[in-house]
Amino acid sequence: MAKDELKYLVAKLTAQAFRETFKERLDSFPDDPEFDGDRLYEKIEKPKDPAMGDYAFPLFDTAKRWGQNPVDINKRLLEAQQAIILRDKDKFKLEFSIKGGFNNSKFAPETLARLVIDNVLNAGEEYGSSDVGSGKTIVIDYSSPNIAKPFGVGHLRSTAIGACLYRVFEKLGYRPVGINHLGDWGTQFGKLIVAYRLWGAGGLGDDPIERLNELYVRFHKEEETDPSLTDAAREAFKALESGSQDEAELWKEFVDLSLEEFQKTYDILGITFDYFTGESFYNDKMDSAIGRLKAAGLTEMSEDALVINLDKYNLPPCLLTKADGATLYATRDLAGIFYRWETFKFDRALYVVNAAQRVHFQQVFKVVELLEEAEHIPENERMSHRLEHVQFGWIRFNDQAMSTRKGNIVILKDVLHRAAELARKIIMEKNPDLKDIDRTARMIGTGAVIFADLSTRKHIDVNFDWEAVLNFEGETGPYLQYTHARLCSLVRKYGRDITADIDYNHLTRPDENRVLHLLYRFPHVIEETAAGCEPFMISSYLLQLASAFNAVYQQKDGDGRIIKIISEDEKATNARMALVEAVRIVIKEGLYLLGIEAPEEM
RNA sequence: GCCCCCGUAGCUCAGUAGGAUAGAGCAGCGGUUUCCUAAACCGCGGGCCGCAGGUUCAAUUCCUGCCGGGGGUACCA
I need a surface site. Which of A158, A319, A566, A598 has the fewest CB within 10 A? Predict the structure, then answer.
């Protein structure tokens, strides 16, 4: 866990103070957490009221264990703390104070500035990185669109969240493995094959996805009045699954065309995968997976289907094969888990999939758990407790679920194009001399779309709103990109070495202090993002940071004049530029983690 | 029927360890630039925090019930 350096300093000093002053206790109970900086660190909190200081250490627990009055301990502690500070007064300015049972500490602004800016500038883009995940593999299953269907904005969630988590875990030292579990198998391909044979004589034309989708929609419509179609589709999929050439050829064509189309969208988004192993990849691994479950004695026949009964766990039965013998998605997910475990020996496996599939994953994970119990696999070699479903809500449109069948869908590529077009128009107005306008416009348009998706907590349903996505003001991706471009502009203009010796006394205004506090929180924000698989932590943090910096950028003196970053006062300029550089680094890195590019000019 | 998620300003959303005058963006109104990028900054107006109980010194936050919206609940994924 990346440490909060300032808090750690407080913890170390306080532990030292405890050791120096409470000799009698130290001798009899040397293992008390009070005497150890690392353990004390865990007990230190942030006060609710910032006026109390930067950190607060509550002494109630200590007092209870020691059988003493918290206020008395606090008084003795404070004396020792102050003595230590006095000895090291050249190193940092830190003030301790007590209020009842709370031992509060507050850093002098220049001390905060020095510690934070040193950290950021020395680490550069590595700031916030850590090695907590070192040696650990995390498999992330994300995006996973359905073949032969349009890539709608609904698919952006899994794609953007997964890609973000990939980068975040990588930054924390994990080895991430990104898998696109394409929906390229299943009964719907039987339907498509039948539909294509019936009505696809004209070929698929130059927009094959659209054409395939039309066929799919038409199939569903005609199926309502002609039940024989349903049977035909089932047979076609059955044939496909059992290796029939004719069906396989058609299927392959559908897959290739779709992948080609999806790749265009991924290219715009700048998103990549380590593996494009869709459901069909597991086709030849199905028998052994089913065999393994059977051998463990978990399966039974029910209504002609092969199922695993989960009544005991209050879950519907997990269907492995249908009455006609064909497999289902649970079967393929199980085979996928077995394969991934064999292949990657993952420490964690995340499934970034809509919350609607909650029960499905509960079933599948429970089956794996039962299997490993039945097989008597040692606890630490089990995969079942490493599986996690990262759930998120819908993107709705016109307050309805997006549905390809109902035609209520917004194509992601269209959104990205429109956003880039708008960005281009704005650049033409504001900065027509900019080089490479098209490229920058794409960066901004895409950034706007991705940020819009990652700027609410993932579990809520959101309504897709063209106006909101195509608005580049306020809490948006372009706002962050603009702030970054402005920071770059300052660095360019200054043009000198920023790491040269800095007088931190020039960074003590309240607005600057706020920026500094935010800067040092960044490593913690990354950890929170990983802990909750919640990119929103980063997006909301970046908005706060950008807003805090923009306030500094336009802060005014008593006469209402803007205090410029770059002025005649060399020392002040140098110090402010150090702040500028630190903010620039963090915003760029934060945007990178979200999967958003940061243009240097716009 | 049962299970899960959501209900906060006109709109979109924060508020995750219960605590004081509930925050932000958009939209509306009013300011700021002889220019370090105004895609910004500053200010104003706007809220029975779905409803009703309960726990607590204190509830938007925890518990129960109800209402409203969404999703799930064996042969789709």
Answer: A566
DSSP 8-state assignment for residue A35: G
Tokens read off for A375: 């097989």
Q: Measuring CA to CA, which residue among A254, A237, A246 is closest to residue A191?
A: A237
Helix (H, G, I), strand (E, B) or coil at A302: strand
Does residue A2 carry a pLDDT above 50? Answer: no
Provide the token pair at A402.
């997006």
- Write out the H or E segment, with its range, that includes residue A321: strand A318-321
CA end-to-end distance (rounded Å), chain A: 36
Q: Which of A380, A361, A387, A459 is nearest to A140 (CA)?
A: A387
Instruction: For A412-433, write each residue's pLDDT tens digit.
Output: 999 999 999 999 999 999 999 9
CA distance A359 to A417: 36
Residues 384-413 of A with CB within 7 A of strand B: 393-394, 401
Note the strand B nucleotides within 7 A of protein beta carbons: 4-6, 11-17, 19-20, 24-27, 36-42, 69-77
Residue nearest to nucleotide B2 (CA to C1'): A314
Tokens coding A126: 């590595």
Cα separation, A34 vs A124, in Å, equals 34
Statement: the CB of A427 is under 7 Å from strand B: yes
Residue A427 CA to residue A423 CA, distance in Å, equals 6
* Strand B closer than 7 A to residue A2 Cβ: no
> Which range among A64-78, A476-490, A506-520 has the greatest average pLDDT?
A476-490
Distance from residue A434's CA to nucleotide B56's C1', rounded to whole Å = 61
Please tell me whether residue A124 adopts helix, strand or coil conformation: helix
User: Whose CA is closest to A427, among A440, A443, A446?
Assistant: A440
Using the structure, give the distance in angstroms from the CA atom of A184 to the C1' atom of B46, rounded to a whole number: 51
Alpha-carbon span A48 to A66, nearest angstrom: 26
Nucleotide B36 C1' to residue A491 CA (A): 10
Contact between residue A519 and residue A582 where contact means Cβ atoms under 8 Å apart: yes
